[in-house]
Amino acid sequence: MIDPSPCFRGAALMPDAADASRAPRWSVDLPDLTGRRAVVTGASDGVGAEIARGLARAGAEVIMPVRSKAKGERVIAGIREDDPAASLSLRSLDLSSLASSRALSRQLRAEGVPVDILVLNAGVIRLKDRVRHVTADGIELHLQTNALGHALLVADLLPLLRARGARVVAQCSLATRRAAIPWRDVNLERGYRPMRAYGASKAALGLFAVELARRSAAGGWGVTSLLCHPGTAMTNIAPADSPLRRGLVGRLAQALYERGIGLQSPAEAALPALYAATSPHAHSGDMVVPSGMFEIAGAPALREPYRALTGRAEAARVWDLVTELTGAHFPDAGGASDQATPNSGGNTNPTPSTQPA
Q: Which spans are transmembrane here (predicted)?
């Protein structure tokens, strides 16, 4: 662990004793973010909604790119019940479509407002069936939604991110501790399993974030790249009828959560991302995780990224995969290019290599 302290500078995480029937909970006051713009993907429910709530409460203008406008509007209405002055607005984004990622980037660039915080939070896990799903771009669904779509967004928004030295926060998972990318079959055409696909996609996102930190430092981009994971929480990332939520295991998890044991609320699970996005103690390349046993729950703590995410060759390989499959363009890591050129196309129907590079 780099720093197990569960505190923001001048804004300590404090136990919330409002509900004495449950285990201690945590709340937090963030630094003043007035005048800052934040973009949070996957903010239409669960942890993402709470990240948006926290940033808006601190005064940031929060952009919420969502697939479902109706769900996003419900989240905004709920936040404004507590904070009528909260500045939140929706944009359209479907990360399973490279065209949608590009469209959002074009829209935000046209608005011309620098992005100070970008939280790559949206994610999908398809446990309802064991059928491999491929996007219209020809990429396995988990890989594109959880990793490649986000990476393309970073590439296309880089001018806005560099304008005021933004923080980019990649929401990873406990699964990345031991997950591996199947380089001989990155599109999982053989041996597909939902959890394997999910773990590989989150590993790809984490490795991308590590490489982003390295390249930003080497090229003088001024972008801070951090990783985090929320621990365990009752959220809607998995369908209600998936193996994660139905049957004995799902009922046990719900019972434990209701008794304040183990599982966190979405608000608690949002704290690592909020810490990564705002704390002066978190630096580029750091990872923020729950501080409790097995990183399942607890106040945020800093640590080095998991060993599986620290291989430089592996991270560079993910970077190359991003550019190959999405057409993303980044400036030279040595600083040869002053700004990223907005992506205008790229390979829209890639065929991922099934052999080692």
A: none
